[in-house]
Amino acid sequence: MSRDFHVYCALCNERHDFQDANWQEDLMRELIRNQEAIAALGSLCLGADVWLDTNYGRVDTGWFALHVGHGLVVIDEYGKVADTCGKHFKCAGCDTQHYCRLDQGHDGECKKTGST
After folding, report:
1. In the 8-state DSSP scheme, what is residue 52?
2. pLDDT tens per residue across span 52-100
3. Which of 22, 48, 113, 115 has the fewest CB atoms within 10 Å distance of its CB?
4. How far apart are CA 63 and CA 42, in angstroms?
5. Strands, E, within 63-109: which ranges?
């Protein structure tokens, strides 16, 4: 089964998308680990001669500059955030399905928002 991964800013509720980054969770973790360096490259990438590319699309250094230090996380195409509870549940308030984003082993009911 296909499962594409992206980088997600939970603070701003914005996602940096990649194309067909199927099972590239480790790449997303490396991008997050190096977020300060990627953000610093932004001034170099303003011209047409310098780009930061992956096999899954261009890395938007400006996006990283806006979100550096926000607690970026890995998210898959279905909305499941890595290293969280991840239980699929039905929200009583909006009657839709979500993945729980609370910490693994949390107390109480699952929620879409959490400490991530």
Report:
1. -
2. 889 999 999 889 999 999 999 999 998 888 888 889 888 777 778 888 8
3. 48
4. 9
5. 73-76, 88-90, 97-99
